[in-house]
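quick one if you have a minute, typing this from the bus. theres a chain ive been looking at and ive put its sequence and its fold in token form underneath. please have a look and point out which stretches look like helix strand or loop to you. anything you notice is useful, everything is just below.

***
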Amino acid sequence: MKNLDIKLSERQKDLMSFLKDYFKNHKFITPCILSKELEINLITAYEHLRNLKERGILNIKFSKEEGKGRPKYLYFLTSEGKKLLTGNENISEIEKFIDEFNKAKEEGKLDLFISEKLTILTKKTLKPLLFIVLGFLILITFFSNIKELETLKEFLILSSSSGILFLGFTSYLFYLLSKYVDTFRPYNNKWEDIKYNLISLNKDERDEIVKMLICYINGGVKNGN
């Protein structure tokens, strides 16, 4: 995946953390703005932005107000930059979630973990991806002997190739949760909300989620690649 292969220094990671918040409310950034916000000199700000442009994270356009001096350098996120800022956030959150699930399992606190997470994930704003991952982990952990599980795994393996197949996987997952998991039955009506959210997943992000779940099946270890 091109966007996940982009190598960043620690300083650039800090910069990307700032840009992630900044670009939530702005379309462009200039060296002057970056210099002021991060309290760095203007030359350093230019270097940061130029390096990110060379890595394909930012692009540049020039803007010159009529009758006024030199043009402004306006930097904006490329499609790869947007994936890096938004897609990775979902992936990191899912990796952390699986780690927490494993820790609760080792400590014998899985029932409490599941109860708390279901409350959090469905309160106010639904978190569809984590909701799906939790349901999948519950089936793999507590219902490993049900005959339908092999079909679910086959759906999962195929789903990285197509958004439609990924929807098929999650739809079948919901069916199995409603059939076998009592704690999920009150949330059956959430499927429509989740379905529309999943449609917006980009292919790279979907692939990473599928890889993590397949890796969990094969040993319960998160994908480190």
In short: Strands lie at 58-63, 72-77. The chain has eleven helices and two strands. The chain has a mean pLDDT of 80. The first helix runs from residue 2 to 5.
